[in-house]
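Thread title: Can someone regenerate the structure for this chain?

I was given the following input by a collaborator and told the matching structure tokens would be attached. They weren't. Posting the sequence so someone can regenerate them.
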Amino acid sequence: MDYPDGSRKIQKVAIPKIGGLAVALVFSISALSIPYIFSNNWNSDLFISIVLPALLAGLIGFIDDIRSIAPILRIGLQVLIGACALILGTQVSIFESKFINVICTLLWFVFLINAFNLFDNADGLASLTIIFSTTVGTLIAYLSGQTLVYILGISLIGISLGFFLFNWNPARVYLGDSGVYFLATVLGIFLIRIRPTSLDLNESFLILILLVTIPVVDMTYVTINRLRLGIHPFTAGRDHLSHLLNSRGFSVKRSVIFLQLFHVLFCLIALFIFLM
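Best answer:
Regenerated them for you:
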């Protein structure tokens, strides 16, 4: 349970923070069943390459929910998540050097998991961000003829939307680290696997970054600000973009909607780059 403390945690009542367990279970079931229903060429390797790293991430996040994991160990375990995805076939392919691509893949998962973990600081913010990012990514995969990828994208949209209905302010359940780790890992794998043949590698990379720009901007701002003040970047606090909006009179709902307007704008730019 996540209990209000009158300062950082401003909800009125204690709220369950293990919604990630439901998310992991339902996504795994849908990812297993939906391709059977909509595709005659279901690929078990693709299913395993997505669900297995995500379940590992969810387990690590769940442990972090129960007893906080030290920051250095946490990063090491996030590298392990990236390594699992890498071994199972998910790899950034931007540079000519295979070694650099491997390093970028590992950093991508560490970066994305931490970005969404920090961004999950207002009711519905993280899940709504994933919904919009995945919707555009799914459309690109569909138009690129990547059937299995866009079907899995539909699964990710569905579970994020289902959770969002219970997480919108006032939230009845939180993702917790288990849910954030799980969804961020699935999103990370999903985005890497979108490979439009009509675009060069630089354009594909730009689209990937645009679809997660707002969480990355939030993490960058918080990290720089905390380092400037001599505070550890992983320290919990009310200094995120949504909190700055709250301090300027925005309600929780309005701050989330305001940030999502910018997020949708970046997602539309990504779609425009693909279509032009």
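The chain is about 70% helix and 0% strand.
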